[in-house]
Design a protein that fits this description.
Two copies of one chain form a homodimer. By secondary structure, chain A is an alpha/beta fold. The first copy, chain A, contains 17 helices and 20 strands. The first copy, chain A, is elongated and about 90 Å long. At the A-B interface, helix 2, helix 6, helix 9 and helix 10 of A face helix 2, helix 6, helix 9 and helix 10 of B.
Chain lengths: ~575, ~575
């Protein structure tokens, strides 16, 4: 009854920081040795971070990858580790896994399936591998794979696995989060385990990298496809698990690379309880907190500044920023104008007070009047229009950036996905900042998350008055968002159909929306690509985010056909 | 002696505007018929524009491609046309060429080699074709190819061409411009003609699409590799040319798709003179003018507004904008501060006068004082620092955007590649605007182009005082760029080595630069990725531009090794 004890190291590398990534991997190897693991798995490209983009075209970066793997060898004495790294061979680069065994490099595997859709550009960088790597360790026959290799059901990798007849499949992964993705992964791996009658170990990256956040949740399945162990979401972890298979030693098979390893420890590992799996809102909440914390920290910032309008978007952003960075590291700024109601001013102050934030008040009217006086000869003295509305937003953006420049605070913008989609936002105004935390969160979900924040706090951190008020930009008297936009529940359903599901005008109308409303909404999305192109990065939490996930030309006259 | 008269239609499609693209193609077909051409070639994806990016994932967009090709059939009576379009077959999309012959669709070719590097992402969208399309028309045996197919010397397409034994190779192309690219293309095609002992017809797109500009310069080679005809650079054209080959009719060969076509007209085409080939500066000049004109026009703008500082960057931008749009469509704005010298103010006015521009003066000091008064309690009353410098730039950006919002003018920013590279520019300040014309033009080249502008005008449109003054941002007293940056000739050589040539610290130092200077320069480039990510698009004119051509993570701690 050969047993195999394995440790899945769910790490959070910093892009390109080889020294700190290696130090972390050494700590994990040491802990795995203490836990008497025979096999340690690190995620895809764990050595450098994922995705390195054009850093993969730098000889120095590739050299550093190679060096990191070489430097890690001594730390693998007495065990076996599979480590994701970028491997250069001549003019070709591979998305590879090094197999380090007892202090030496025993072999490597090159990823065969390279994803080149959505947020992925792997065919820009990597040459595909051509054959599976089969390993034998302590009486276990293993197939080593990397991420996408298993995402092509009945593809060449799966076929090779079935043909080889292995006891277990190992998968090193860097699978970005979106809400609901975990369940896709779980089903995919379960299905493979059942088809191959093999155990499966899946180790995923954790942490934020620009627009992407990785949720971890590494998993171990037994050969009947039962989920045997799972690591936590959005936290680093070393998940130790153990497999036992019936039968004794097998006759040697030259297709398998034999690795040296101690036998499994005498006492079997007790079954551990799995961490609770978060619900939909909880996982999105954790994604936003993690993505923000990592963007701030990995870019060398400590503190962040947020314009508090008294509305729900900025209140949610501030509440989540406090969770990510600590209340002492978040500064609120309220920038009232003549159009700010007493109620929203009070709410901005209340949000700051509830969250325990320092609040800076910078009234904008003197600046606004100075602007309009200078502009009057050019613009004429007619009614204030969109130029004047945007001016107020840009004054606020400039004030926040002045604080950022002076104190080194990162500006967090507060725009949600609904307004980003239809361009209900001001370039260089409320869009000015380093990171757009809730950029991929539709307005209706903003409210749900605000509810969750209050629920978790056990009190109304985000005041009820904020949640109940009709959304308003307060850039002219008595303005509300619904002067210009359809009600958000309606808008968000249309946007989801268009952006996330790729439906066209006709298909959306068929769901019961008014054709003119759909046409106008889609037109606004199409027309505002130029704004989004200059937006700060934000965290992808849906299946299709703006940014690297959805790449449209700015110059684009294609419009859905008139008839619907 | 079979003769073949062919017409290369060098068109400038508007992305997704199928109706206008088709109308233009019909005009070209009609002109080709008048010129008694038997074969008409249109560029790669001529029907929709290049590159459509994620529009290729829209069913409606693909449907419109298919429809456009179908609609074009009647216009091909009595001749043969090869037309680039996106072809959908089941779930696969191909970068294809339709062969329209005498009013019907005779066949199609699917591009085999899909570029997925630099500015290209074709593997994200297209499935590769698998075999060459061979045609026979009026006694000529032809191989039809698309762009990249010929850019893999001794690759599978070239081998198939050599094996087939054809009289001529046709290539539909969408090859983006950078300075010097034409010569690469010319040599590549000449080499192919000689190896295959075949004539070559190469038709290229012309015009701007976001960051890319296409220079046209379609070419016809005879079977000895001699350039026989060339279309102009950066202008639409129909290039009519004629091939004659020795020998009579051949026995039928079933590998070749036989097309119906009239014999060549009785009178051979007289040899035409080729348009003069522009020098390096001239072609860059034309690229900037064309790219700007097309961005403005294709996005529905008529007029552009430019902040005139009295410096060379804004003077050049204004001069080129006048060439692109006409002087009546360019508005200059001067926004003096307390740090603006009398000399630069005078120069801003002189540039506007020389170019015949309307000039609006918007002094910023009252606004600046209003800002500093509001900020003083938060920032304290210490010496003005970078926050105050950026504030001035942001006030100017907000003023230009107010004019843009009010009048519908597109803001052209004036930042060059050198300052964009090292971050010597202000987000939401001088970087605020819709299009960054000279974003890929290094500062030293800005001066060269300014010289060319004056030379072409026959007078100092850009005043000598502007060209002679030490560059300055004028954001604090007596500031010059060289307080902070190395002299531009030095800086630009380092930047070229790092960005365009991909050299690392060590290699650049070996060229004779001071290690500390190189290290500091490279660090500045790396640290300012976040600024560039929010920059407006601009025209690629070098082999490696910022933007879609160079994709680096913002979160990135990889730095060149300390020792050099």
């Amino acid at each position: 009854m050969p047993r195999l004890r394995l440790a899945l190291a769910q790490t959070n590398p910093v892009m390109g920081d080889f020294a700190s990534n290696l130090a972390e991997m050494r700590r994990r190897l040491s802990a795995a040795r203490q836990a008497r693991a025979q096999l340690v798995l690190f995620p895809e490209l764990a050595v450098c971070g994922y995705p390195p983009e054009d850093l993969l075209q730098s000889a120095g970066f590739l050299q550093a990858n190679q060096q990191a793997v070489a430097d890690l060898r001594p730390d693998t004495r007495g065990l076996c580790a599979c480590v994701g790294y970028a491997r250069r061979a001549g003019s070709q680069v591979f998305n590879a896994a090094a197999v380090l065994n007892d202090g030496r490099l025993a072999g490597h595997y090159d990823k065969i399936e390279l994803p080149n859709y959505g947020v992925f550009d792997e065919k820009r960088y990597f040459h595909p591998g051509s054959r599976l790597l089969l390993l034998e360790l302590s009486g276990w026959r293993l197939a080593l794979t990397i991420c996408e290799d298993l995402w092509v059901p009945q593809g060449p990798v799966e076929q090779a696995i079935l043909k080889a007849g292995v006891d277990a499949v190992l998968n090193l992964s860097a699978s970005p989060f979106h809400a609901g993705k975990f369940e896709l992964r779980r089903r995919l791996l379960q299905r493979l385990a059942r088809r191959a009658r093999a155990a499966v170990a899946y180790v995923n990256l954790v942490g934020g990298q620009d627009e992407l956040v990785f949720d971890g949740r590494s998993m171990v399945f037994d050969s009947r496809g039962r989920l045997q162990a799972r690591a936590p979401h959005f936290a680093e972890a070393l998940l130790v698990s153990e497999w036992t298979r019936p039968g004794g030693p097998r006759r040697p098979d030259r297709r398998f690379l034999r690795l040296a390893g101690p036998a499994a420890p005498l006492t079997p590992l007790p079954r551990s309880t799995q961490p609770p799996n978060p619900g939909r809102l909880e996982e999105i909440h954790a994604a936003l907190v993690t993505g923000t914390r990592d963007y701030v920290r990995k870019n060398g910032f400590k503190q962040a500044v947020i314009g508090l309008s008294g509305g729900v978007d900025s209140a949610l952003t501030a509440a989540l920023a406090v969770e990510a960075l600590g209340r002492g590291n978040v500064i609120g700024v309220t920038m009232p104008s003549a159009y700010s109601s007493r109620a929203t001013r009070a709410d901005a102050a209340r949000v700051a007070k509830n969250l325990g934030l320092r609040l800076i008040t910078l009234p904008i009217m003197t600046i606004y009047r100075a602007f309009t006086a200078v502009l009057r000869p050019a613009l004429g003295s007619g009614q204030p229009g969109v130029a004047h509305e945007n001016l107020q937003a840009r004054i606020r953006g400039s004030l926040l950036m002045a604080l950022s420049n002076h104190f080194g605070w990162l500006v967090l913008t507060t725009g949600n996905k609904s307004e980003t989609a239809v361009g209900y936002c001001t370039l260089y105004g409320d869009m000015a900042g380093g990171f757009a935390m809730i950029k991929d969160v539709p307005k209706t979900l903003v409210y749900e998350l605000a509810g969750l924040v209050n629920l978790r706090a056990g009190r109304d951190l985000i005041p009820r008055s904020v949640l109940k008020r009709a959304p308003t930009a307060e850039l002219r008297p008595n303005q509300t968002d619904q002067d210009t936009l359809p009600p958000y529940p309606l808008l968000d359903r249309m946007l989801k159909a268009y952006i996330e599901e790729g439906r066209d005008l006709r298909q959306i109308v068929r769901r019961g929306f008014k054709p003119s409303l759909v046409r106008e909404t889609l037109r606004r999305v199409d027309d505002n690509e130029y704004k989004r192109r200059q937006a700060p990065p934000g965290i992808k939490i849906t299946p299709k985010a703006f940014g690297r996930d959805r790449r449209l030309p700015i110059t684009n006259r294609f419009r859905p056909p008139r008839s619907a």
